[in-house]
Write the structure tokens for this entry.
Amino acid sequence: MERSLWLRATILMCCFFVAPGVRDIKVRNKDYSDIYNHTLATILVEYASAVYMSDLTELFTWTCSRCKDKTEGFEIIELIVDVQNCLQAFVGIAENLNSIVIAFRGTQEHSIQNWIEDLFWKQLDLNYPDVSDAMVHHGFYSAYHNTTLRPGILTAVQRAKKIYGNIGIMVTGHSMGGAMASFCALDLAVNLGEVNVQLMTFGQPRIGNGVFVSYFKRHVPKAVRVIHERDIVPHLPPYYTMFPQKTYHHFPREVWLYNIGFGSLVYRVEKICDGSGEDPSCSRSVPGTSIADHLMYFGVELEAATWASCGIVMNPGTVGFRADTDGNLVFSRDPAAALRQYRAAPAGSAATA
């Protein structure tokens, strides 16, 4: 018996130390393939990165330096830039996902400082049907609902659905962009009646209380929050167990990315956490102290090229855009034109969550 156990241990050690390098481990207690898809995550993180680009001409034409690799061939239908509030988002068609993709830019310039200052108790009632006592973060909610982003996004989705039919919708964003993406996914599900909405965010902060979480997961069941190592932002606003009614609470499902080492080997772990949203064995098991972990997911950079300003770059000859009286910009493309190119391209393999 002892010899058998020793032999098994030796074989296991050989598997770990056969060669140096970085390997991937997925930690699961059951089959979560209907909730989380690694390939999809590596695609959506590139959209979450691209939306940070400040050259609007390159972004709208999808020729920017981040508009390559797994997102190549993406067709933007609407690019919305709220200059006054330093916000940016786009809506487009991803052939390889057979879906509408909506991406929100994360914190830019001094906006992260602004919302960190109001993190603790600045909540307001969620003005949605069939829910009471649901409280949400005032700044994140307003950034989506009370700016030019929401009308531009909803209009683009409705235009796209008329052309593409019952196509799925995937919403993504990083940091504050993840918070806005979450409110967008809920908005699409509750107010537009969309039933095929998937949400995947990266380094997202908490956005509401426990009542809100119950409401959210009922209407957006296909939601994933990816957290990298000791990323500081998902630990904010703080989670206070002694104030269950008021404290901020994450919605499920968290996927925690972290590294473990065995000798010269480093393993990347993708741990799919429990359905509570606040699994104590996942990111809450470590202090959130790292800004570096916040700015890099799956090896993809998630920040603007410069944090000095919200300045934008645009070719004066760029067509298809309009500006409102506040100087906010909306770039639009006819969804029918995108469909013609979509149908002319070779069929891609869809990745679903």
User: Anything to note?
Assistant: The first strand starts at residue 21 and ends at 27. DSSP finds nine helices and 15 strands in the chain. The two ends are 44 Å apart (CA to CA).
